[in-house]
UniProtKB/TrEMBL annotation:
It comes from the Bacteria. Gene3D superfamilies: 1.20.120.1220. Residues 11-109 form the Prepilin type IV endopeptidase peptidase domain. The chain crosses the membrane at residues 52-71, 83-103, 109-132, 152-169. The keyword Transmembrane helix applies. The keyword Transmembrane applies. This is Prepilin peptidase. It comes from Paenibacillus mendelii. Keywords: Membrane, Transmembrane, Transmembrane helix. InterPro entries: Prepilin_IV_endopep_pep. It holds the Pfam family Peptidase_A24.
Length: 171
């Protein structure tokens, strides 16, 4: 059975994944309430120790990824998302997730380099148009288009990273 913290973190990641894949954005309207809910939950469940647990998790999620954001490796929404994830799941989990997410991001980047050729691009864009289209005439996964700088929603690496961390921690 899932704990409240697992459910909170899982819901946060699921919503962020959908938003990031569709729009390449993780809105403040998701991350700020998620952080507040985690802080309130942990304070209600464990008092001051719970608040310290949540705030320490926030810092563990924000600080390392802030450097990556300043180097233009990830967006600010990803940084805030990891802060909110840390508030829900704690320092150890968010750092584990971060490590696995960065490894998965490398694999995704390599895969995108390989599929950005003409056939791979047409196949992926066609499937995305059918499954995720959000605007008429514009492929939902326009970030795969050949000739563009290699960019992709970090959440497609972060979610598998979180699942891996959850399995490794013994979730």
């Amino acid at each position: 059975m899932l704990s409240v913290t697992d459910a909170g973190a899982g819901l946060l990641l699921l919503i962020a994944l959908v938003s990031d894949v569709r729009t390449m954005r993780i809105p403040n309207a998701l991350t700020i309430p998620a952080f507040a809910a985690a802080l309130l939950y942990h304070c209600a469940a464990d008092g001051l120790d719970g608040g310290i647990y949540a705030l320490t998790g926030v810092l563990a999620g924000l600080v390392p990824l802030l450097a990556l954001h300043l180097l233009k490796g990830i967006g600010a929404g990803d940084v805030k998302l990891f802060g909110a994830l840390g508030a829900w799941a704690g320092t150890y989990f968010v750092l584990q997730t971060m490590m696995y997410a960065i490894l998965y991001a490398g694999a995704v980047g390599l895969a995108l380099i390989l599929i950005r050729g003409a056939f791979g691009q047409r196949f992926i864009a066609g499937a995305a148009m059918l499954l995720l289209s959000r605007q008429p005439g514009r492929p939902a996964l326009s970030w795969i288009e050949a000739g563009q700088v290699l960019r992709f929603p970090f959440m497609i690496a972060a979610v598998p990273g979180a699942v891996t961390a959850w399995l490794m921690v013994g979730g």
